[in-house]
Design a protein that fits this description.
It holds the Pfam family 2-Hacid_dh_C. This protein has ten helices and twelve strands. The chain is an alpha/beta fold and 312 residues long. Bound molecules: NADPH dihydro-nicotinamide-adenine-dinucleotide phosphate. The site of NADPH dihydro-nicotinamide-adenine-dinucleotide phosphate has 29 residues, from helix 5.
């Protein structure tokens, strides 16, 4: 039974093999481009951005494990067999790392760090950049799933006022939750820092556009750690120019790596991070992949399955 892996490149395969030898000794772990693997022996695939058409070649494929919490990088290939379940990579580390990142971003943006760093580059001492206290800053989180909930809880514990928005009602300690399109405007109008942690779906693609940005409090900050497809960069740059948006911290982009000539790289009020908000270790990923495969083989429910009907 072969588990084929495309995650981290060919140089990562020996590490995957040694991690999985401990966790699932009966699995034969092979790299994506290994020419010795007969396609009919492939039962499982652990992948990041699989080449279009490749997964469809494995007629005995039983389970696809996404190397990331999102599955958009797999669904981009329309030939991926629809009957094969896809597991999202949600490990013990995923929420914790994202909560670290979002809390760092909330502190950085509430304390005007982009402008402070820009002033430092010009050796300019600007003591007016005092920022705002956490307790007087409302952070609005779009998406209250695994990552949104972990981030909301940590932000509340760190002293921020926290509100959240999701498709279905939620009850979270110290977090006021808004539901659906009907309550979206009320949520946006309070979000001094807007954090996007939505999955990429037909409904969420392009959601952070000019109209959304106009509904935020003047001078609001944006944190995008969901997907680049959800944010219109031209609308963000325009809102930064007018001051409607004060600053942004962006971890994900439509094209990654962000092209060298992109204006977001050089904008003084923008911090760019290279899709590292919740970069989980291979050890944690191997543990989750082995657990998902074991549950599947035992006929038990596999946690964190992608649900096609709802799109995430
Ligand atoms: P989940 O599937 O656990 O949660 C998704 C949340 O979004 C749910 O609360 C869901 O609502 C809400 N949602 C989905 N569609 C809508 C909609 N149309 N309107 C309102 N709310 C909606 O996902 P995770 O928290 O695990 O991950 C979220 C995303 O974060 C991933 O899909 C991925 O794109 C991104 N990510 C980014 C990383 C990075 O390093 N930058 C790392 C990992 C993930 P409900 O609860 O009602 O279902």
């Amino acid at each position: 039974m072969v588990l084929l892996i495309k995650s981290g490149g060919a140089e990562a395969i020996p590490e995957w093999q040694s991690l999985l030898a401990e966790l699932a000794p009966d699995l034969v772990v092979r790299g994506w481009d290994d020419p010795t693997v007969a396609p009919d022996r492939v039962r499982y695939a652990l992948v990041w951005e699989p080449n279009a058409g490749r997964l469809a070649q494995f007629q005995n494929l039983e389970l696809i494990v996404s190397s990331a919490a999102g599955v958009d990088h797999i669904l981009a290939d329309a030939t991926v067999p629809r009957h094969v379940p896809i597991v999202r990579m949600v490990t013990g580390e995923t929420g914790e790392r994202m909560a670290d990142f979002v809390t760092m971003a909330a502190y950085a943006l509430s304390r005007d760090l982009p402008r402070i760093v820009a002033a430092q580059r010009e050796q300019r001492w600007d003591a007016s950049l005092t920022g705002r206290m956490a307790s007087e800053t409302t952070v609005g989180i779009m998406g209250l799933g695994e990552l949104g909930r972990a981030s909301a809880t940590r932000l509340a514990a760190s002293g921020f006022q926290v509100i959240g928005w999701a498709r279905s009602p939620k009850s979270l300690d110290r977090v006021q939750c808004y539901v659906g399109r009907g309550e979206f405007d009320a949520f946006l109008s309070r979000s001094q820092i807007l954090v996007n942690l939505l999955p990429d779906t037909d409904e969420t693609r392009g959601i952070v556009d000019a109209s959304l940005l106009a509904r935020l409090p003047h001078g609001a900050a944006i944190v995008n750690a969901g997907r680049g497809s959800q944010l219109d960069p031209a609308a963000l740059l325009a809102a930064l120019d007018t001051g409607q948006v004060g600053s942004a911290m962006l971890d994900v982009f439509d094209v990654e790596p962000l092209p060298a000539n992109h204006p977001l790289w050089r904008h003084p009020n923008v911090i760019v991070t290279p899709h590292v908000a919740s970069a989980v270790s291979r050890r944690a990923k191997a543990r989750q992949a082995a657990a998902a495969i074991a549950a599947h083989r035992a006929g038990m429910p596999v946690p964190h399955l992608y649900e096609r009907e709802r799109g995430y």
